Amino acid sequence: MKPILLQGHERSITQIKYNREGDLLFSSAKDKKPNVWFSINGERLGTYNGHNGAVWCIDIDWDTVNFMSGSADNTCKIWDARTGQVKNNFETKNPVRSCGFSYSGNLAMYTTDSTLRENCYIIVRDLRLSEQDSPVHLIDVTALKFPKITSSIWGSLEDTLITGHESGEIMLWDFRKTLNEPSYKTRPHTKQVMDLQKDKDSTCVISAAKDFNSKLFDLENLKELKCYKTEKPVNSAAISPIKDHVLIGGGQEAVDAALYSKSGKFEACFYHLIFEEEFAKVRDHFGPINYVAFHPDGKSYSSAGEDGFVRVHYFDQSYFDYDVL
């Protein structure tokens, strides 16, 4: 399984996302220029120029019309995915840490960091309204005495939102009810939640955390279903759309690997979704893996690392023949 190497960023990658068809792969990094690539051959299609700081999060809508990015320059931008022109520029008082389009693509959600002077917010905007209109939902997370949000994802359709926090908590917010508190709250992790991703059918959500664990939850009530234990901090986890497999990426921080360990454990690890057993590893990154994503057809996956490279892996036939007895 020889990877296709995508080299277009000058600094470490923060996030990668496939569009719905899987023909395009979007990437963001700390170098302020999100990129878009052809996933079939790794050719770079273009860049989105306009941010003045590290881009922490990206998302692409259902029909690949709008592209969204949140940055440390205190803005969340909505782009025309095809032309690279900025459609909306939402300014915030803090860096934007996570973002996402709703199922229809009409709503855009983003969350901000908390600092000494400014609070952490969940902000939901209706893209059918003008840029000057007020958000349709605005939740002051800090005022509710909850820790800073480090990752977030839409739940079922456009009714719920799931947030991961730096304390290890995961919360589900239901916009049909009062927003003074989350509908469900759990603390499955002891350290910061780094990533949340849904499965193909939007019935489960998988978390990745710094406490060396990745866990599977019911999307409706955050009931814990499975736990995948590793030997390294987990930065990202994804669920295969065609097989009962979970892909986990992470690794020790570079400084910790240099000081305390001969191996930084920078492999991408495959676990069985049901039996929670690791059955394969892929070693190719030179630093921690920051994000992993399965292709929508399940025949390949991509990983993005602290080394500034995105690697697209197309599975060999042996992967599809493999089955747990």
What does this entry look like structurally?
With 325 residues, the protein is mainly beta. Helix content is 4%, strand content 47%. The chain contains two helices and 28 strands. The radius of gyration is 18 Å and the shape is globular.
Give the arrangement of secondary structure elements:
Blueprint: E1 4-6, E2 13-18, E3 24-29, E4 35-38, E5 44-47, E6 55-60, E7 66-71, E8 75-80, E9 86-91, E10 96-101, E11 107-112, E12 121-126, E13 137-140, E14 149-154, E15 160-165, E16 170-174, E17 184-186, E18 193-198, E19 204-209, E20 213-218, E21 224-229, E22 234-239, E23 245-250, H1 254-260, E24 268-272, E25 278-282, E26 289-294, E27 300-305, E28 310-314, H2 317-321
Antiparallel strand pairs: 1-28, 2-3, 3-4, 4-5, 6-7, 7-8, 8-9, 10-11, 11-12, 12-13, 14-15, 15-16, 16-17, 18-19, 19-20, 20-21, 22-23, 23-24, 24-25, 26-27, 27-28
